[in-house]
Amino acid sequence: MNSSDGMRRLGENLRSRRIILGLSQELVAERADVSRPTLMRLETGEGGKIEHLMKIASVLGIAEDLISAVDPLNTDLGRARAHLLGRQRAPRRK
Fold first, then answer.
1. Could you identify which of 37, 58, 79, 80 might form a hypothetical disulfide with 63, taking C-beta atoms 3.0 to 4.6 angstroms apart as the criterion?
2. What Cα–Cα distance (Å) separates residue 65 from each residue in 24, 25, 35, 36, 61?
3. pTM higher than 0.85, yes or no?
């Protein structure tokens, strides 16, 4: 998968999540403190700033999911090589 395909899929998933939650673009943009065109660019996979993505993800209730998805300690390889990071896995939140 190339980066533009990934951005498009991520955008589609953000849009689908918003629709399933019954939220309008206007409401999500307002709650995330971003412009509607910024939200539209992210939803269409055209790109945007990571801070905007995280604000929108927070409004949609998936910010922690995004953070966990890139945590290297959530993989077998990451756990096997955790010593390279100089840190141990943090306790899971309840």
1. 58
2. 22, 21, 23, 23, 8
3. no
Residue by residue, what is the 3-state secondary structure of 21-81? CCCCHHHHHHHHCCCHHHHHHHHCCCCCCHHHHHHHHHHHCCHHHHHHHCCHHHCHHHHHC
Which structural domains are found in the chain, ordered by start? Answer: 3-61 (1.10.260.40)
CA gap 87, 76 in Å, rounded: 15
Better pLDDT: 79 or 16: 16
d(CA 46, CA 91): 36
Helix (H) or strand (E) holding 19, with range, is helix 3-20
